[in-house]
Amino acid sequence: MRRFAWIVLAFPVIELIGLVLLAGRIGGLATLLWLVASALVGMWILRNQRLGLLLTAWGALNQGGQMSLYQMLWPLRFLLAGVLLIFPGVISDIIALILLLPLRGPQLGAGQSAPGEGPRAANDSVIEGEFSRVDDPKKRLPGQD
Hints:
Elements: H1 2-26, H2 28-62, H3 69-86, H4 90-100
Helix pairs in contact: 1-2, 2-3, 3-4
């Protein structure tokens, strides 16, 4: 628990050091513009996240109430990224951008079978039909010998 407290206390100091280094590298005005732009983007994400959460819940209801853990946590990633973008600092912005990357979660339920069933085929698109073997040379297609 003490380590977590130290990390929480050290994070703003590390962010401040990062901002000072960034200002020394690109200039104070550019750093200020970066902070204002990231805060505006963070507020925009938080404002539009309500709609995303409602659409996700609506989609789950249309699918019969089945919602994977990844689908439930996706809006929380956006929420955390928006808060981190509002928080002034370079490291928090980098973490927020990583959270906003469109990474795919694990395929929960893919290829799994219910208890009592055999294993599923990997390709569910099966075309059923009948066939017959033709050995009569008159019925063969031209070019087949």
